[in-house]
Every structure is written in structure tokens, then in C-alpha cells.
Amino acid sequence: MDKRYQLQFTVNKESQILREAIAIWGISKRTLTAIKFNGGNLLVNGEEKNVRHPLQIGDVVTIIFPPEEVSGGLMPEYGPLPIVYEDEAVLVVDKPAYMSTIPSREHPTGSVANFLCGYFKRQGIASTVHIVTRLDRDTSGLMVIAKHRHIHHLMSEQQKKGLVHREYEALVEGVIKQQLQSIIAPIGRKETSIIEREVREDGQFAHTDVKVLANGDNISHVRLKLHTGRTHQIRVHMASIGHPLVGDELYGGSRKLLDRQALHCRFVQFQHPLTGQILQFESAFPNEFSKLL
To answer: What long-range pairs does 136-139 form, CB within 8 A, spacing at least 24?
Structure first.
């Protein structure tokens, strides 16, 4: 039997009804409607109750969410999924390069989403895949995944508030003399491409901090901190200052030394959506990058 996602808490405040108590957990009206009509349950001390039920201090409330349907185009696969952290709410995966985050027409199989779908099926988890932080196919490193729609909603709210922090390391072409700099330049879709982005006045606000860690032979090793999460943000910003990523042909880099963009998500930090605990994870700098330096 599939494991339906559930939350449980003990009431510690007087004069509450069930609807008010569960709102504290950030459950939206849309989610509450799904619980009521799509196979979920609201229990107080093990008995099913409606949202107007008055609560007493010490009551145990259990919210059982309805099972989620997997997207029709997502096929479960069973393969390598380097999980570095997992609990009842979130997963953190250290994605290798050349693995897509989600399936596409060019790469319909072998994605993180495909493997997660298979993993959930094997574990009996009645959930579809919810990617919180996405990486390009050629980019390696840490990704955060929510294990349920409600958790994804809470993590999205964190992202809007700037509480999900990511740092990357990259190799870029040329020697950067300025040790620290901030690139604040709006990014939008290039009119002649459905994929490529560019710095443009009518684009979305984007902010990247750059720190030079080392300089090699016409290569710089940099650490990048994202303050916003625009598509291709690091690639576009570094190209805009004349230092495209090594291997990033789309934005002016050369593949003579590396057949992928030299970008790695090395660090993520976020607040656990249920406990409030600050979680931090790090991933080692790829050996193929170190050899180039």
C-alpha cells in the first residue's frame, strides 16, 4: 500500500478550531480542498473531524494528504540517484554532470525526475516529483527536492523570501583581476532563441556575487553566490563581463579543454520546512575541474 504523506502536531493554544490550527502549518485553501475531496483526512485524536471542530490543548491533529498522481510523461526508472540527505519532507541529491533534471525531447530517459519517480514507487511513496532547485544538464552538484506538494509550496515561499542559499564554483575563461565583484544586470530571453538568455533592459532583476579563488593559465576559478534564480543566470552574467564559462559554447566559451560548462553547485542552505532547522550541504569540487587548473 502506498504511503500517503501526513503531518501531525499537538495543539498548544486555546480557542482554536481545526481550520485555524492547520493554517499555521502553511496549508493553502487549495490544498485543504484537495484534502477534503480527493482522498485526504483530518483527524483529531484519531477520529475524523471537519474544519469547524473546536480544539482543546493537548489534542493531537493528524493531516493525511491525498495521494498524488505522477505526471503522464514521467516514466519511473531505476538507476543511480546519489542521495546525500533524506527525511520525510525533503531530499538533497548530488547530481552528476550529463544528467538532465527533467526529461526532454532530446533526453527522454535517465533524468533525476525519472529516477526519483522510480525511487518513490519502490519506496511506496504516493507522491510525484517536486524539484525545488533545478540544474542544467551539464551542471553538476547539489539539488533540493520536496517529497510532497505541500512541502514544495513551503519551500517556494522560502525561495521568494531569499531563504534558500546556493553557491557555485566554476572555471571561466581569462584572468579576472578584480577579487570581488557583484554583477547586477537584468536577464531576459533572447528574441532569436527559445533557449538562450541575455542581459537586457526589459529583463528580470538578477544579482550574482563573484569571488576569485585562483587564477590559472588563462583560466579563473571563481565562487558564485546567487541572490536570484534566473534561467542561465551565472552563464549569462559571466559572459556579459567577458569571462564565459569554460566549455559553455552557447554563451561564447570554448570546448577545447572541457566538453561541458564548468559549473558546479557546491553549497546549499535552507530552513527545514517543518522543523525550522537550518540545513547545510556541501559537494566536492569536481576532479575534472581541478586537473584543468
So the answer is: 136/101, 136/232, 136/261, 136/263, 137/97, 137/98, 137/99, 137/100, 137/101, 137/107, 138/97, 138/98, 138/247, 138/260, 138/261, 138/263, 139/95, 139/97, 139/261, 139/263, 139/264, 139/265
| β-bridge partners, 93 | 83, 143
Active-site amino acid positions: 136
DSSP code, position 251:
G
- If you ran DSSP here, which 8-state letter would residue 243 be given? -
Amino acid 91: pLDDT = 96
Of 98, 56, 55, 66, the C-alpha closest to 80 is: 98
pLDDT in tens, 215-258: 988 999 999 999 998 999 999 999 999 999 999 999 999 999 99
Would you give the DSSP letter of residue 15?
S
Dihedral (CA of 118, 121, 123, 129) sign: positive
163 three-class SS: coil
Q: What is the pLDDT of residues 197-219, one digit of tens each?
A: 999 999 999 999 999 999 988 99
CA-CA-CA-CA torsion sign (284, 288, 290, 293) = negative
Asked whether 281 and 268 are in contact (CB, 8 A), the reply is yes
Residues 6+ apart with CB under 8 A from 105: none
Q: Could you give the CA distance from residue 262 to residue 269 in angstroms, rounded to a whole number?
A: 22
User: Please, what sign has the CA dihedral across residues 19, 3, 9, 158?
Assistant: negative
CA dihedral 46, 51, 56, 58 (to 10 degrees): 40
Nearest to 208 by CA among 224, 189, 193: 224
Collapsed DSSP state (helix, strand, coil) of residue 170: strand
Query: Where does the pLDDT of residue 27 fall: very low under 50, low under 70, confident under 90, or very high at 90 and above?
Result: confident
Query: Given a cut of 50, is residue 29 above it in pLDDT?
Result: yes
SS3 state of residue 32: helix
